[in-house]
Amino acid sequence: MRRMSFIISFIIFMTSYNFAQQADEIIGNYHLPNDLDIEIFKDNGKYLGKIIALNGFKDGQTNDINNPNNSKQNDLLIGKVIITNLEYDKEEKQWLNGKMYGPEKGMIFNLKITKIHQNEIEIVGSKYFFWNTMTWTRI
Question: What is the full DSSP assignment across 49-82?
């Protein structure tokens, strides 16, 4: 009986460990097509992303000058959290329900990550009826 309890506990542990590993595959640093580098990290069970390098973004822009909130237009872009609320859906094997702030336009988009490869992830950003698929490169 004790052995059976151990085996069941072990199976449950390994299943949940495997799920956590799959979900956490997204964690890391990525280079975006707009020349920003971001770090995706986990906080309270959700995935977030913050800007870690600008790489000459928008001809040297360092502040959030396009933010629709005037009081935030002097905020530095480095360290700014631009991805929030991403959640891993184990059945879809995608990260869903995210929001991404685009500092080049000062807009918030819906975000989901559909595929992950060794050195790239495929993301879909959408706003209203418009959507765009992009590839981000792991750095």
Answer: EEEEE-TTGGGG--B-TT-SSGGGTTSBSTT-EE
pTM exceeding 0.85: no
Closest to 82 (Cα-Cα) out of 30, 131, 23? 30
Residue 16 in this model has a pLDDT that exceeds 60: no
Report helix, strand or coil for 36.
Answer: coil
Contact status, residue 133 vs residue 120, Cβ threshold 8 Å? no
Domains of the chain and any CATH numbers: 2-138 (2.40.128.520)
Residues 6+ apart with CB under 8 A from 45: 87
59 backbone dihedrals φ, ψ, rounded to 5°? 60, 40
